[in-house]
Write the structure tokens for this entry.
Amino acid sequence: MKIKWADLALKWKGALEKYKYALLVVAAGVVLLLLPGGGEEKNQEVPQQAETFDLVEFEKKLAQVLSQVQGAGQVEVVLTLAGGSRQVLAQDRDRDRDGGVGSTTVTIGKGSGSQDVVALQTLAPSFRGALVVCPGGGDPQVRLALIQAVSALTGLGSDRISVCTGGGA
């Protein structure tokens, strides 16, 4: 039994024409599988950010910015907080056989028995009120500009912001 190479080549050519797109997808998959995976595994740990809210520093920065408002003069700012900053922690939810849902806080082992919680987000504290004292506080246009600026930066409503005239020392 002799193999007829010409007939075999025609069959292969017909099969390749018929399934060329499928073979192209398979070849692309093989190439993607053979690509290197990037070497070392990347550390998935979220870097701990030491972002703590400093009220005094925020008041100084706010006063410095508000002093730039035309006609305001030297500004002093006092803010009160409704609550401190808080963190939103990662939760792992499990379903039990009865259909109930339970959740546990996700922690990361740091070695030698210590663990840290996984913080997804740190929320800044909410403000209760603001007092702005400046020499230009008696001018209605300056007062409005200061109230709008403090409202934009703190999220307070205008009813919670008081602007007073100060004795420009």
Remarks:
- The chain has two domains: 5-34, 55-95+116-165.
- The first strand starts at residue 76 and ends at 81.
